[in-house]
Amino acid sequence: MTARTFINRLLKKNAIGLEKAGRSYRYYPPVSGQERVRAKFERLALSKPRI
């Protein structure tokens, strides 16, 4: 798998965003860092405890 193929798969899954900047591309996460942390804590709070 090439890097471009991997990037295209992430784009299809909306795991990353894409912005064209002149002749190059800028890739970015679809959510901010703060939103990512909040979502992770919510999933943790809703998960069943492991014993």
TrEMBL record:
Pfam families for the chain: Penicillinase_R
Top-rank taxon: Bacteria
Keyword terms of this UniProt record: DNA-binding, Transcription, Transcription regulation
Keyword Nucleotide-binding among UniProt keywords: no
Family as reported in the entry's similarity comment: Belongs to the BlaI transcriptional regulatory family.
Name by which UniProt lists this protein: BlaI/MecI/CopY family transcriptional regulator
Organism: Paenibacillus ehimensis
